[in-house]
Structures are given as C-alpha cells and as structure tokens.
Amino acid sequence: MRLRDELGLEQPGAVRLGFGCASLVGKGFDASDGERLLEVVLDAGVRYFDTARMYGEGRAEAVLGSLAARRRSDMVIVSKAGILPPSRSPVARGLRKAYALAHRTAPGSQTWLKPPAFCEPEFNVFSRKALTASVEASLQELRTDYLDILLLHDLDPADLTDDLLDTVQTLQREGKARHVGIATDPPQTRSLVQRKETPTELVQFASSVWNDNLSSIRALTDAPLAIHSAMGTRFRALAQRLKTMPDRASVWSQRLGMNVAEPAVLAELFLGHALASNPGGLVLFSSVNAQHVKRNIATAGKTISSETLTAFESLARDEH
Ligand SMILES: NC(=O)c1ccc[n+]([C@@H]2O[C@H](COP(=O)([O-])OP(=O)(O)OC[C@H]3O[C@@H](n4cnc5c(N)ncnc54)[C@H](OP(=O)(O)O)[C@@H]3O)[C@@H](O)[C@H]2O)c1
Hints:
The chain has 320 residues and is α/β, with parallel strands linked by helices.
C-alpha cells in the first residue's frame, strides 16, 4: 500500500502533524518526563512519531519504546539510520563534560581542542553491517518488530551505493522497515530525488516561512514530504522580540487580527503556515511543554485564511 494512503494524509480532517523526539531527553528533561509527554501527544491525537538512532545521544528511542510497548498499534514509528550516537560509557560521558567545560572557558578552542572520536556522533554510517546493526538496535530500543518508516539520515548522493540499496531492500523484505525514505539537507535532497534508484517513500527536510525549500523540492518529486524546523530556534527569538516590543507586536496583531505577543498564537501561525504550504504532507514539531503540545495539536485542525497567511509571510520575512 502507498505510504500516503496508509497514513491517510489525503483524507479530510487528517492529522498531518508528527511529533519530533529529538528533544525528548537532555537539558533537564529526563526519560520519565519524556514518557509522560509522549502519552499526552498520543492522547491528543498525533500518532506519528519521528525519532533517530542518535537522538538524545541514543536514549530517545528507548523513551518512545516505553510507549510502543503499550500502544504500538496506535502509533506510526519513524526512525533513522546513518548517524550513530556517541558512546554512553561513563568515560565518554565524563570526557564530553570536560571538553564542554574547556570550550566554554576558552571560546574558540573547539577548533584545536577536539574530543576523541568515541565521544562524538559518527556520521555516514551506511555500510551493510553498520546500517543493519543500527536498525536492529532501533528495533530493540523501540520495543517493536518493525519500523513503519526508515529514513536514511543525512544521506549524501555519494553514499547511495548498490550495497546500500541492497541492504535497504533486505531490511524491507525481512519486514523490519515497511517504508524507506531520506532525511537530509535540502541541497542533497534536491539531488537525490532526481535519481530514480533513491528510496523516496518519504522525503524529509527543513522548510519554514523563512527558508522555503518546499517549492523547489516539490517541483522535483511526487513523494510524500515531511518538513521540520517550521519554528526552530528563530521562532523563540521572534516570540521574545514581539513580547518585549509592544509597538512591533501591535503592527503584527492589527494586520493579522491575532494577538502575536502571545507565543502560543505565534506558534499557531507558524504551524498553520507550514501545514498550508505542505498539503497532503506532514509537519513535524517538537516541544517539551505539555500545554504547548496540546495547543499545537488542537490548533492544527483550524484553517487560517489565505489572506492571513499571506500577511504573516510578509511580516515574518520583513522581520528576518
Ligand atoms: N534531519 C532531520 O530529519 C531532522 C532535523 C531536525 C529536526 N528533525 C525532527 O523534527 C522535530 C522537530 O524539530 P524542529 O526543529 O522542527 O522543532 P520546531 O517544532 O520547529 O521548534 C521547536 C521549538 O518551538 C517551541 N514551541 C513549540 N510549540 C510552541 C508553542 N505552542 N508555544 C511556544 N513555543 C513553542 C518549542 O519550545 P517548547 O519546548 O518550550 O514548547 C521549541 O523551542 C525534531 O524533534 C526531529 O524529530 C528532523
């Protein structure tokens, strides 16, 4: 069955939001916080979860796995292979902390003071042995027999060898990955989607009101598209600016008829714009705040008028 049909992306009222698990563990947010948050996401109506072997330094999949152990049949699980997390041994963790401290104390030292390789993620891991082991590790952590979608993480056109294609086909034949696609940077994506051998059951990349990659990639492929970074880090800076600059916020609010000094309203605009730009596709979002999660999912069902979205685009681009 085509992935688009399986996900019901073209059904009226389809929930086209996916929850991103990159921030599920770390920065004071522990595994039990992550488990509680995932439950909120699923209960609020989002069943599509995007993770990767390397998220949370290799720990995010296990958090998602604790939900999958109980509610797998309600979930669509997407994971990625191609980047391996750094070692989680006590030595590696201690060294990482020491190097981070040194880098903070001596800014610029990143260029000459580099931690040993086992303390860093490993990129371009696409050999048959390593890719198969990565998928096996994902399945174990996620407590499932299959990935709904396997994405080749940060794939470069040069990595797409016959051996990689054969490995991917084997994983599909064995039922370990039902669908396969790519999740890489927009220039690589544009190049890869033009090669007929590239697995493109799903094509994932960054796109936002500030950085529109959708138009150019959609022109090259009919594959279902998933976009991330609709808000990203710049959203936080803009929300802060509009909160602290009432004159600026008032220009926005009057043109849009919405109170943009409230970050949740701004988030609604960013997500609404992303969903409208990617009809029949998915928009990933992330949050460590349960209220934000509920609000984002509730507002994703609303339609924002095209006049408001056009005005939003022009305001956001002026602000950039
Ligand atoms: N190579 C790849 O395929 C790739 C690369 C990057 C990301 N991704 C995927 O995409 C996922 C999403 O990442 P992203 O960068 O696209 O995240 P995003 O959703 O664009 O931005 C997340 C930021 O938005 C804030 N936010 C969300 N809802 C909010 C609300 N209602 N009000 C105020 N602030 C709100 C969050 O803060 P709070 O936490 O405070 O709510 C967080 O700081 C990742 O987890 C990952 O799964 C994939």
